[in-house]
Specification:
Elements lengths: L1 H26 L1 H19 L1 H11 L3 H16 L16 H11 L15 H13 L4 H33 L5
Helix pairs in contact: 2-3, 4-5, 4-7, 5-7
Length: 175
């Protein structure tokens, strides 16, 4: 009898844990994203949509800024997952590559800007614990991680862009 009661309690505890996580989302990340979206949209309205879109389009016009500056700024200032909305300023044919660059940067940014992606912080902290155990400073790790992240997102952006254009041409679609 005790055996059945123990499994029944464990079964219910599983759902209690899920409910606690859900409550955390409802009181944590969801309101944060809604407020961030509201603030960004308000800022765009105050600046003027045409001026803001013009600036954003210029920032995503060239490969160098499209796959470095734009993803870095959007991840730092808009944080994950709001940063992905910045893709609306990118030409349609560059969106897959821009997304690849952006999603690849939400981890390397964590050492210097932990607010940018709290979900990735546990990975960085695991690496940081190993670095600290070896006696090395964390500042060097954070800066190197950030800089190498920029190089990686630039390369990923260019490579993904070429693959996307190649695949579309092969399928007979004009890009």
């Amino acid at each position: 009898m005790e055996f059945i009661a123990m499994y029944a309690n464990s079964f219910i505890d599983l759902f209690k844990a899920g409910a606690q996580i859900f409550t955390g989302f409802v009181t944590g990340i969801i309101p944060l994203v809604v407020v961030l979206m509201t603030a960004v949209n308000s800022l765009i309205k105050l600046i003027g949509e045409q001026r803001f879109y013009g600036f954003a389009r210029k920032a995503t016009k060239y490969k160098l800024t499209r796959y470095t500056l734009a993803p870095v700024l959007s991840v730092i200032f808009l944080t994950s997952p709001m940063c992905f909305t910045f893709g609306r300023f990118v030409e349609e044919k560059y969106k897959p590559a821009f997304y690849d660059a952006q999603v690849s940067f939400v981890h390397p940014v964590t050492g210097l800007f932990p607010h940018a992606n709290g979900g990735e912080l546990f990975v960085y902290m695991g690496i940081a614990a190993g670095i600290q155990a070896l006696g090395y400073p964390l500042g060097d790790l954070a800066v190197r991680y950030f800089l190498i992240g920029i190089v990686v997102i630039f390369l990923r952006g260019i490579i993904t862009e070429r693959i996307y254009i190649y695949m579309n041409r092969k399928a007979g679609r004009k890009v």
